Amino acid sequence: MKTTNKFLLVAALCACAAPAGAKVVEELAARINNEPVTISDYQRAKEALTEQYAAAMPDFFKQKDADAQIEKAALDKLVDEALLRQKAEALKIKVYERELENGVAEIRKRFSRSPDGAQLSTEKAEEAFRGELKKEGVTMEEFRERIRRQLMVQKLVQDTIKTRAKMPGDAETKAYFDNINLVLKGSEASIKGLDEEARQDLLAVAGKFKEITAERLRLRHILIKVKEGATPEEKKAAQDKALALRKELDGNLDFDVAAEKNSEDEESAKRGGDLGYVIKGMLPVEVEEAAFKLQVGENSQPVESKFGWHILRLEEKRAAQKLRYEAVKEDLEQVLTQNSFAAELGSYIKELRKDAKIQLFIGEKK
Question: Domains in the chain, ordered, with CATH?
Answer without folding.
Answer: 2-165+341-360 (1.10.4030.10), 216-318 (3.10.50.40)
